[in-house]
């Protein structure tokens, strides 16, 4: 990983207004089904991860675009209330990105994300943010909800400035092979790992095999999350470590991965070693599934520490 001194977490990515419905089951195609509850909150993988990093205790900075519509204040207010620096959150003449999320009684979800304003992010905006923030940041979080050329641009800038680059490859799709040597830590779940590598991930052994696919292409650490089976970290020297699952009552899995990513980055930015950062991030991800909604489910630092003490 990068040799940067402890500093802030820089997040370049998406922000949305999350429209979420909760029901006992999901409707069949063409069916109308009555639900139980509805929420409208800040979301987007980039914004969620920035909020999680801030709640974890890091100085979090977010780079992205929001529309000039009725959702603008929901987005900006949610980030600001979480203590995230939004100096480089740009308002553009378009609609704010939207995520339509459906959650069933088991806590499983499906999501349709419409980028809208997120598509207006530019290389110039990213470069300006790095000019302001790179020297005092140590970790950059990236995802795949903004145009891939911009993700690559931000990752290259982060590497040039010595930041540790963490990629949450979601939503998963085929990527340019040039990306992998630029990544310090990649964090796919089992579905994303399968889509990217072609290797079905069903247990620890297959997770190690999928992780090796990333390492063979230049990634320094591959961390495959396995939902109820914990996670598996494989380092570039081939060393594999299993992190056991933390048992909780699942209400809604939305943003669990974002809680994990934000706390992982915050731990690394504070100077924690990778294993300690993963253990703390695992607790944050577990707590996130016990609450409804995306950003409302992201835990605070004190909640995570109390949870870990009770294990």
From TrEMBL:
Give the primary localization class.
cytoplasm
Which NCBIfam families does the protein's record reference? D_ribokin_bact
- By its UniProt entry, which SUPFAM superfamilies does this protein fall under? Ribokinase-like
- Tell me which Gene Ontology terms the entry assigns under biological process: D-ribose catabolic process
Provide the residue positions that the database annotates as binding substrate.
Answer: 16-18, 44-48, 145, 258
Name of the featured protein: Ribokinase
List the PANTHER family hit by this protein, alphabetically.
Answer: RIBOKINASE, SUGAR KINASE
Localization, per the record, is: Cytoplasm
Task: Report domain Carbohydrate kinase PfkB positions.
Answer: 9-299
Q: How is its activity regulated?
A: Activated by a monovalent cation that binds near, but not in, the active site. The most likely occupant of the site in vivo is potassium. Ion binding induces a conformational change that may alter substrate affinity.
Report the cofactors: Mg(2+)
Single GO MF descriptor: ribokinase activity
What does it do? Catalyzes the phosphorylation of ribose at O-5 in a reaction requiring ATP and magnesium. The resulting D-ribose-5-phosphate can then be used either for sythesis of nucleotides, histidine, and tryptophan, or as a component of the pentose phosphate pathway.
